[in-house]
Amino acid sequence: MSARLSFQGIAHQYDALLALRDFSLDVGAGEVVCLLGPSGCGKTTTLRIAAGVERPSYGTVAIDSRPVAGPGVFVPPEKRGVGLMFQDYALFPHLTVLDNVKFGLHQLPKDEREPIAMRALEGVNMARYARVHPHMLSGGEQQRVALARAMAPNPRIMLMDEPFSGLDNRLRDSVRDEALSLIDQSGASALLVTHDPQEAMRMADRIALMRKGQLVQLGTPQELYYRPVDVQAAAFFSDVNICGGTVSGGLVTCALGSFPAADFEDGTRVDVVLRPSAIDLHSAGIGVDATVRRARLLGEESLIEVEVGGHDALLQVRIRGTWLPAEGTHVKASADPERALLFEKATDA
Fold it and tell me: Which UniProt keywords apply (predicted)?
């Protein structure tokens, strides 16, 4: 059965560094939540506190409403019913694959460990490697063994710290899909740390976006991508183009045209944020004048950088298919108002 994992008012300090501040989050039973953010934002510290590897300086951690860390309470990792999976696999080189998986079952009677370990290896298609040592395996195979070891005790909560970042892109997709399938089959809840927004959107039911030790935004992948809380949150999920203007008559006009701004009072300075796919280029017609400065093929789409009068930076535009206009080509640029993200400009900007 899955379990709920709750953080309430967590703060944690390393000497003079405040790694987490007033962090609260609930992971529902059977839910997959990704902690997403740049390096140093507190993701791994949060996971280590959940695992019991770190004691929080303040606040409470609870599993199914039972405190496991907090004032006067600390339940050790082995008694929390959690599975751990790390970026570096953490396999014992002197043990066989089977013995590595059995190691996570040390609390069970000896005669029960091997059948359970073999079933876990079968679940990740690694049973045929049971008698070999980890150094004989590829990175993807070692990660599958690490997954089997974490899942073998049938944990109620899985904690995963950048577990796929060491794999190449194609292998990463298959291994994380296997991991997600196993977690779903087991019914476990999962908390995954990643700095990769695509991985978070691919795996998570909800994403917890972190910045400087705090929770910035929590929601579904769709909510964070299409309704980011600020410019930085929008830019974390993709490249963005930003042009500024002042609201007048319910519109904000910038270098790329006019956009509805009914939610802002006249006179408000606003940043209009457009992802590269929200801008269209045409050889003629409606739009603002633009000049191509560079065009590159990215496979199924082209990345075209254009210069627009009144805008001091090149705009990035992604076009489906192959279109590579020469440098200096004059085009028309237009943007879909419904895909524009508007934010009040910060007072210190």
Answer: ATP-binding, Cell membrane, Ion transport, Iron, Iron transport, Membrane, Nucleotide-binding, Transport
Please compute Rg for the chain using Cα positions.
Answer: 25
Task: Give tens-digit pLDDT for 152-180.
Answer: 999 999 999 998 888 888 788 888 888 89
Q: What Cα–Cα distance (Å) separates residue 55 from each residue in 5, 26, 48?
A: 16, 18, 8
**Exposed / middle / buried, residue 298 (Cβ in 10 Å: 0-12, 13-18, 19+):** exposed
Q: Give the amino acid at 34.
A: C
Tokens of 235: 């830019």
* 205 and 56 in a common domain: yes
Q: How far apart are CA 58 and CA 56, in angstroms?
A: 5
Positive or negative CA dihedral for 279, 283, 289, 291? positive
Taking the model in full, what pTM does it have?
0.91
Final residue in a domain of this structure, among 217, 233, 249: 233
The domain total for the chain is: 2
pLDDT digits (tens, 9 = 90+) for 234-244: 999 999 999 99
Residue 149: left (phi > 0), alpha (psi -120 to 50), or beta? alpha
* Residue 349 in domain: no
Residues 6+ apart with CB under 8 A from 57: 11, 12, 13
Q: What's the CATH number where 129 sits?
A: 3.40.50.300
CA distance 211 to 198: 18
**Of 198, 213, 233, which residue sits at a domain end?**
233
